[in-house]
Design goal:
This is DNA repair protein RadC. It comes from Pseudooceanicola antarcticus. It is a single chain. This protein is of the alpha+beta class. 40% of the residues lie in helices and 17% in strands. Helix 3 runs antiparallel to helix 4.
């Protein structure tokens, strides 16, 4: 459900090959898909910028555990990756930054007003990133874009907001 593609970060796995999850064979009809964003220039130019589906799960809890399993396979010195859990209709259920053997889940917005504020702030960060890039500051631009992507990750589909907020409370 990401409207804007998120940057792909280096992973321990070969590019384009999803990691192996110990949950056994995954059913392609399972309702929850754990995805990793692809935004490498080659992917954008070839039209393959759609999220890479790492695995599918029958329950949200299993998908969250799959994300943690994926985070454990990321090299300790690698940049965080933004993972998203999508439902069967490709609506954003939950997203988080995976790295350092853990996932920092992004708390979902709880209202339309909060969502508008998040969109505005993310847009401002991307504008700042564009200016930083023009000034020859690629590292600062990347940091600003990553912060904007984390804000976008809070834009959970309204159908899932209350449920996911409660699930995060229970998981904490």
């Amino acid at each position: 459900m990401f409207d804007l593609p998120l940057p792909i970060q280096p992973t321990a796995q070969a590019r384009g090959v999803p990691p192996h999850f110990p949950s056994g064979e995954t059913d392609p009809n399972s309702p929850f898909a754990l995805t990793l964003s692809r935004r490498a220039p080659a992917d954008l130019m070839s039209g393959r910028a759609a999220p890479l589906i790492l695995s599918r799960f029958a329950t949200l809890a299993e998908a969250m555990q799959g994300a943690i399993d994926h985070a454990e396979s990321i090299a300790p010195d690698a940049a965080p990756q933004l993972l998203a859990i999508l439902d069967r209709d490709e609506r954003l259920v939950l997203a988080g930054a995976a790295g350092d053997h853990a996932v920092a889940w992004c708390h979902p917005v709880m209202s339309a007003a909060e969502a508008r504020g998040v969109v505005t702030e993310a847009s401002q960060l991307r504008a700042q990133a564009g200016r930083a890039s023009a000034w020859g500051e690629p590292d600062l631009a990347a940091q600003l874009r990553h912060r904007a992507d984390l804000l976008d990750a809070r834009l959970v589909d309204p159908l899932w907001r209350a449920f996911v907020a409660r699930a995060l409370q229970v998981a904490a």
